[in-house]
Here is the input.
Amino acid sequence: MPTVYLCFSTDIIHGGHIAIIRRAQELGELTVGVLSDEAVAGYKRFPLVPASERRIMFENIAGVSRVVEQRTLSYREVLEELKPDFVVHGDNWVNGFQKPIRDEVIEVLSAWGGKLVEFPYSADEKYKELDRRQRAELAMPDFRRGRLRRLLEMKGLVTAMEAHDGLTGLVVENTVVHENGGARQYDAIWLSSLCDSTAKGKPDIELVDMTSRFRTVDDIMEVTTKPIIFDGDTGGLTEHFVYTVRSLERMGVSMVIIEDKTGLKKNSLFGTEVVQTQDSVEHFCEKIRAGCQARRTREFMICARIESLILERGQEDALLRARAFVKAGADAIMIHSRKKDPQEIFDFLAAFRAEDSATPVVLVPTSFNSVKEEEWKERGANVVIYANQLMRAAVPAIRKAAESILANHRAEECDAELMPFKEIIRLIPEE
Ligand code: SPV
Ligand code: MG
Here is the structure.
């Protein structure tokens, strides 16, 4: 009897899936592949149902002989193992970003004379509605909060991009680039104190109060589903920090990062050009412990940010603090530098990883921006935050338009550089 392979990324099974399963069964003995959580998360959205459970769903469909996990978007590994006579797929990948995956399937199958069979893809409105409803679930606080931890487990390295309002949140949520038949998108959203303050025309000195910062979180949460990492500045007084932890956790934020500075906090990119005081290890550990005690779930992460390199106190001080903060309960640490040369971060990572292989390390490579994510992962980093690039892209563009209109006494000259509002509106979802 001929053998057939059909791979699914879905976490719900509807009539359209059953129909294609039935057609595949007519060709021979059917093996269903379940795409790994990591591959699904990168390719469309975070799966609501993990691969282990999706496997069980398919195992219980009559006529499915067996279910295997497909680890990557590429079919090569699975196909070379199963050597099926047929691979079945919808015809929606004949063109578009999945085409390289399709081409590879045809090439791999040709080694043993296997064939690709494509059925018309059904883009039924009711199935689209199901997907929309599932996306809405992902936005709910209880679904969203734990997703950063799960992404860290799944991917090892996650990326976060800055957003400072609903619109930039939508850009971070929806930006996708296609590469090698797959898709790349940001894993999480960074709520920067610098950009949140700047958007309000205020300095980054903990002047924008928590109520206002939470308002920004809420604006972003309303229109996105990705996990949120909140820049908690110094965390303020320990007595206040515990309330911040509770509020963020309840809102569905996944991680708060607090930095070991005290007194009037200035942005780290100023380094030693301004007076900045580092908190004592003991006092900051107390703050971490209090935060950990205040939270209600293990899903919510508290990250301790070490300012030793920014303040030129050296690697030893940074390492000593990392050790102490982890011992006090920090779920992750962030090490920061404002040097262009990444060497001091490399040195820290090597030394820290030699003694701690588990605690996630967060980086904000604004100054040391030459290193690619793949190398950071190899060196032991787990979160890469692009902390302010969207704001820095926007300001020169809007200033240029403002100047052009003034200089030309009309808007015609700058119009070619502006996005038509029709296109901007397309970014905004309608219920
Ligand atoms: C922020 O984005 O507000 C940060 C990162 O804290 S940095 O500006 O590099 O200090
Ligand atoms: Mg900040």
The two ends are 49 Å apart (CA to CA). The CA atoms of residues 404 and 413 lie 7 Å apart. The mean pLDDT is 95. DSSP finds 19 helices and 17 strands in the chain.
